[in-house]
Write a structure and sequence with these properties.
Blueprint lengths: L1 H10 L5 H34 L4 H32 L5 H6 L8
Length: 105
Amino acid sequence: MEDNTQSNEKNTPPKHRGKFEALDNISLGISIVVAVILGVGLGLLLKYLTGYAWTLWIGVFYGIAAAFLNVYKAYKRAKKDLDILADDPKYAHLKKNGYKDDNDN
């Protein structure tokens, strides 16, 4: 009897999975801002320590690069999820024939 309930628990998704995925997507915007702010802070610290003004731009560059990396990781995660969805048998017709709206001629 216990084996049956354990197999059912493995097949059902977690109750609040959608909410956590939505929060993860919202956090992308926050992580972009934080990455740029941390980069500027690093640049200001380098400027203070070295005395050279151009070191500020090193920090800005690292912050922007980190923001782009966050966007790229989110894109790869979303693409993986959509590829899994595309392989779903419910959407096989759309994958084969494409999407056509009733208004298309």
